[in-house]
């Protein structure tokens, strides 16, 4: 038997001194047997008025409420009580009555004038208590029961009426989470197992949308919209009715998300719990603008990337507590993977030293960390360079190997930064190498991540220089210098002069192939040459615009190769000779 609204208006009739007040108008819908129907809507939208009208506690202003094919207004009260039961938000109950006695009150529409319960009535009461899993409470007084237990007894009272439909007003109010879930599951089960029409008014929206078969949504505009929870969600009606400045309904997750005063964009993995926790701290994956924070799963924990740094956390709680205190505006933003790949592919066309492959290592590729930790692997590279250069001096081969490797990491790092305002995230454990018969050492990165400079053209900012130095010098070249020093004794000044010379070589390559980048390349290199271990290694001169040259202050030992002479940066070249070389290469300007 259905419960149907036919062009009904719920409200309050005119009284002395008061006009008629229509709360909800033109309502036409049906609650079907075997389904749990939830009545939802914002406070003050008219849910309680509608429920009271459906229960026959106040007449409709126009239209009808039909139970089956009969208008409830034409059904005598006793007969209506046999067809329709209500469970209201009763907080005051006779404290000395037992649960069985309260449930027995539901039999009064069936007992006649005396009100006595017969054996059949007692059987129905026992069945009703059992149906709501409250049989064990039968002999306990109501004053001894918890809120959840009381609600079960009140539903048993409604079942004892043996109705076709039950209307419940806020049955989960005052219950804890576990009890709310259990009670809504119970109501859905009763609807399906007993073929009952059950309509529940509730403010517990997220739970209602998870368990209901149908939803009646009373919007702020006073219009009743019906459908499955998924249909109402997909049409955006839930959000339209409940979204506010600080709260919005997430369609995909089916939950409400907080919107603090400042919503900051973040790139997050598919992790609803993480998303919810960070939303409380003001971080949202759908906030406008490029992501300021990027988080990935890392083993059993999380890795957060912010302003050129990465942080590890063992739990969501630790991560959320850290994210709560981020107030700085970052100079570096986590770059989109495609932006990193595109930038690397572009600068790889400058020369072989700028090439950097992307992808997981396959056969033949070895971690760059091997060169730092495995003396035999590094010694093998030194010996290979010695053979190629035709020298037996290990010191010379080690010096030139170090300079070549420095050029290999400087080139893609500085090329992507200067050409695309993008800083590649290079670490020894994400970088791989393999042997090659000649040419620059092949390098591959996996994963290939990076940082976008927040302000376009600001690659020369102090924060950017700091991160470049940290990643290339501190992260790669300094441990490489230590490893080289473990094979052969070389003065630190020599090695850092080599690192500076390879930096200058990267700038010259960019100047030759991307002349429009020369100015930025020179400015960044000069800032780096004033930093840490590179300080006092030499000077980047520009005797003519677009023609940078490096004058180093230490020797790389290149002159000790058979018939090699001196390298272009050699500290041993007389000043006048250098000026003449510059003049020839810059078209006569000295």
TrEMBL record:
| Signal sequence interval, chain numbering | none
Q: Which Pfam families match?
A: ABC_tran, FhuF_C
The keyword Nucleotide-binding appears for this protein? yes
Gene Ontology MF terms? 2 iron, 2 sulfur cluster binding; ATP binding; ATP hydrolysis activity
User: Which key words tag this protein in UniProt?
Assistant: ATP-binding, Nucleotide-binding, Translocase, Transport
Q: Which domain of life is it from?
A: Bacteria
Q: Where is the ABC transporter domain?
A: 3-245
Its name, as the record gives it, is ABC transporter
């Amino acid at each position: 038997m259905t419960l149907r609204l036919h062009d009904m208006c719920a409200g309050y009739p005119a009284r002395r001194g008061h006009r008629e007040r229509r709360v909800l108008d033109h309502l036409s819908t049906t609650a079907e047997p075997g389904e749990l129907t939830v009545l939802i809507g914002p406070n003050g939208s008219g849910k309680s008025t509608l429920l009271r009208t459906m229960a026959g506690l106040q007449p409709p202003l126009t239209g009808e409420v039909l139970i089956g094919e009969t208008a409830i207004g034409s059904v005598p009260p006793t007969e209506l009580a046999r067809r329709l039961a209500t469970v209201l938000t009763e907080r005051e109950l006779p404290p000395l009555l037992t649960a069985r006695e309260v449930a027995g009150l539901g039999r009064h529409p069936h007992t006649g004038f005396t009100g006595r319960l017969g054996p059949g009535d007692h059987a129905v009461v026992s069945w009703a208590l059992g149906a709501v899993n409250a049989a064990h409470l039968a002999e306990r007084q109501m004053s001894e029961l918890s809120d959840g237990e009381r609600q079960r007894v009140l539903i048993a009272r409604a079942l004892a009426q043996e109705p076709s439909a039950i209307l419940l007003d806020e049955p989960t109010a005052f219950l804890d989470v576990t009890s709310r879930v259990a009670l809504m599951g119970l109501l859905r089960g009763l609807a399906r197992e007993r073929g009952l029409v059950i309509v529940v008014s509730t403010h517990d929206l997220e739970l209602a949308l998870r368990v209901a078969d149908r939803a009646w949504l009373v919007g702020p505009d006073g219009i009743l919209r019906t459908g499955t929870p998924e249909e109402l969600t997909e049409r955006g009606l839930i959000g339209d009715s409940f979204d506010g400045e600080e709260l919005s309904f997430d369609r995909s997750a089916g939950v409400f998300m907080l919107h603090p005063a400042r919503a900051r964009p973040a790139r997050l993995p598919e992790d609803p719990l993480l998303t919810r926790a960070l939303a409380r701290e003001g971080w949202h994956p759908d906030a406008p603008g490029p992501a300021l924070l990027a988080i990935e799963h890392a083993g059993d924990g999380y890795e957060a990337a912010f302003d050129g740094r990465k942080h590890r956390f063992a739990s969501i709680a630790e991560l959320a507590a850290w994210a709560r205190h981020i107030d700085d505006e970052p100079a570096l933003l986590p770059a989109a993977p495609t932006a990193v790949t595109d930038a690397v592919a572009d600068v790889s066309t400058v020369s072989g030293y700028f090439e950097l492959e992307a992808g997981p290592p396959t056969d033949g590729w070895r971690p760059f960390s091997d060169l730092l930790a495995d003396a035999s692997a590094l010694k093998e590279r030194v010996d290979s360079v010695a053979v190629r250069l035709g020298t037996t001096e290990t010191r010379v081969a080690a010096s030139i190997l170090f300079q070549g490797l420095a050029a290999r990491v400087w080139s893609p790092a500085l090329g992507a930064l200067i050409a695309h305002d993008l800083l590649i995230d290079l670490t020894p454990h994400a970088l791989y190498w393999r042997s090659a018969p000649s040419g620059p050492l092949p390098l591959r990165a996996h994963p290939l991540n990076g940082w976008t400079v927040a302000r376009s053209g600001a690659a020369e900012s102090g924060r950017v220089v700091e991160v470049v130095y940290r990643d290339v010098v501190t992260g790669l070249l300094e441990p490489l210098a230590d490893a080289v020093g473990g094979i052969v004794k070389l003065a630190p000044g020599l090695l850092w002069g080599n690192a500076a010379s390879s930096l200058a070589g990267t700038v010259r390559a960019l100047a030759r192939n991307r002349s429009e980048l020369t100015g930025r390349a020179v400015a960044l290199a000069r800032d780096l040459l004033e930093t840490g271990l590179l300080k006092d290694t030499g000077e980047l001169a520009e005797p003519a615009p677009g023609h940078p040259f490096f004058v180093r202050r230490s020797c790389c030992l290149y002159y000790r190769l058979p018939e090699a002479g001196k390298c272009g940066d050699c500290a041993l070249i007389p000043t006048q000779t250098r000026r003449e070389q510059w003049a020839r290469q810059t078209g006569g300007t000295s």
